[in-house]
UniProtKB/TrEMBL annotation:
Species assigned in the record: Shinella curvata
Pfam assignment, any one: Aminotran_3
Listed GO MF terms: transaminase activity
Name of the protein in its database record: Aminotransferase
Organism phylogeny: Bacteria, Pseudomonadati, Pseudomonadota, Alphaproteobacteria, Hyphomicrobiales
Gene3D superfamilies (UniProt xref): Aspartate Aminotransferase, domain 1, Type I PLP-dependent aspartate aminotransferase-like (Major domain)
NCBIfam families (UniProt xref): PRK07036.1 (NF005447)
Record carries keyword Transferase: yes
Key words, A-Z: Aminotransferase, Pyridoxal phosphate, Transferase
Amino acid sequence: MRSTEDYVSAAKRNLFVPAANMEKLGTETLPRLENSGGIYVYDEDGRRLMDGPAGMWCTQIGYQRKEMAEAIAAQAMALSYNSPWYTTNSPAIELAEKIAELTPGDLNRVFFTTGGSTAVDTALRFVEFYNNVLGRPAKKKIIVRKDGYHGSTSLTAACSGREGNWKNFDIANEKIEFISSPNPRLHPGLSGSELVEQLAGEFESKIADLGPENVAVFLAEPLLASGGVIIPPSGYHARFKEICDRHDIIYISDEVVTAFGRCGEWFASEKVFGVVPDIITFAKGVTSGYIPLGGLAISEKLVARISGKEAKGSFFGNGYTYSGHPVSCAAALTNIEIFERDGLLAHVREIGPYFQSSMQALAQLPLVADVRGNGLVVCIECLADKNAAGVTDLDKKIGARIDEIAFEQGLIVRPLGNMCVLSPPLVITKSEIDDMVAILKEAIVRTAREFEAQG
Ligand code: PMP
């Protein structure tokens, strides 16, 4: 067996991880996880850590589900791969059928990708293709929101409004237009419905300025997850969809985080946020992180306009070697069976309010300026001066410090500057939520004391 030191030095030498701090590349490495079970992971020293962010919002059914390992092994033994260009496979067909059953409206045409970024990238390429086939090549503008996150391909990164990720990349893309984040905290004087009207007005003006004949798509997460769990005011999505319909603009709901139970539904768009989009993208929870998979479900109406004799000889030249991978699709089918058998959506609907109210109790603590969430996702936003309007450089250090202390106490937190995001595996119990809140409370109180001492 290799020693810890050996792993550390090999990681420092050869591993290049996502979002690497380049100043520290080669001198620092990340905690190495070795084992898992339920909502916990175990590090290289066997220390148990509660998985507060569900990995990256994805380990819905929890770790070490034997049925998942068996389904993956069985499919790998039967058929480990097929070319999706020339053949298909039973798990991909069954999964497309199942997802069509679970999506709202007529979103019944399912395309598989390798993850969330490739799902959103494919959705955008589909819209580009759609408008070209329909003979309107100018209809290409993509409208997105500040604070949104849509992935890490060139196109999806350019659609992501978190400027911290842009430095030293060539992000500019003449097709992409940003509008405001639907963050109620940025508009303290406005009621929810007033804010919806203000944002809808901005959207209408943007479309008018660009010319509706040039606008192809509105791309939006139901709640802006990586932007800090920003929850738009009630009625926002339906109002935006109505504007899209009036201008023949395609509404893509990026449900990479929210699909598969995070808000207590298979898909959050319709049942939680009141909108039936034209396209939904998904990934993460579709396999509970056991194996990579993503995809999109497209409205039959859209597909009908550019298929059959309407296709005018064109073929959709977009796809991946691993589109509809049989092992990934078999894992997803088993994951969905586990959701159904264990009543996991009902569990989230039942325990979600307990999770939210337990987190709300933290709002009384020093530093905590806002606690917001839905289902099993929450953001604790911190400010050194709770009532300050803006976020200072000092504030941006708070999340990392809370994470550090929580980690020592056995809880992984997702720090995002001055915010901490928690989105645990969906199988979490009330007593595990109590443990999580107790650790968070201590971490916040200790961080507040330290910040106070620093003045
Ligand atoms: N869309 C959203 C809303 C996401 O949160 C993410 C990832 N966090 C992505 C797309 C990209 O997914 P992936 O990392 O699987 O490519």
